[in-house]
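Hi again,

Forgot to attach this to my earlier email, sorry! This is the prediction with adenosine monophosphate bound. I've pasted everything inline since the attachment limit keeps bouncing my files.
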Amino acid sequence: MTFSDLGLSPALVKAVAEKGYTKPSPIQEKAIPPILEGKDVLASAQTGTGKTAGFTLPVLQYLTATKHPKYRPLRALVLTPTRELAAQVHDNVREYSKYVNIKSAVVFGGVNAKPQIATLRSGVDILVATPGRLLDLISQGLLSIKDVEFFVLDEADRMLDMGFIHDMKKIIAKLPRKKQSLFFSATMSDPINQLAKSLLDNPAKVEITPQST
Ligand code: AMP
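Structure tokens for the complex follow:
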């Protein structure tokens, strides 16, 4: 199985080849096809499995294929629990989008918001964010998520552990009803399943058992 076999465009295949990836990881093989088909996905996957490329590559593919020639509304939102993870996911998004006309940005708390606001003003297709700063920017009228077509919840279990449930619900309430949602969690528990059930519409379920070393 190659990245091209999964249906990814030459521009994305070139970017992952430059990263040194020779073939898709198991989570990528399982998650990329249903995402490209437009399905919601519920994925149980740990860090280190290649899950970031698993959701980023098909989102980039769809955004590039359906890009508006003039406007650049925010079309994809990736929510992560920590700023470290947000920065890391955004680094990946930038690398994978090297050969496509897609702009991305990252926003998180604990740093000056001004540069983040300036970047948002210039127009971005994909935003990676932590919940608190995202809600701040929305409440100040500096950002709208009403046109988001892809919503990715990364490390949902950590998000709950860190007490973000209310922020997450507030954010989900501001998203449009019609969207494709991708839900990633290392572990599955009752609260996680409840949240997934409230967000996802007939999701494809993707499970990866971590390989023992
Ligand atoms: P993640 O689970 O998304 O945090 O990714 C873990 C690490 O695996 C990152 O350093 C990625 O750059 C790397 N990676 C992702 N996909 C592949 C792949 N198909 N082949 C080799 N390395 C990969």
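Residues 105 and 120 are 7 Å apart (CA to CA). The chain has a mean pLDDT of 95.

That should be everything now.

G.
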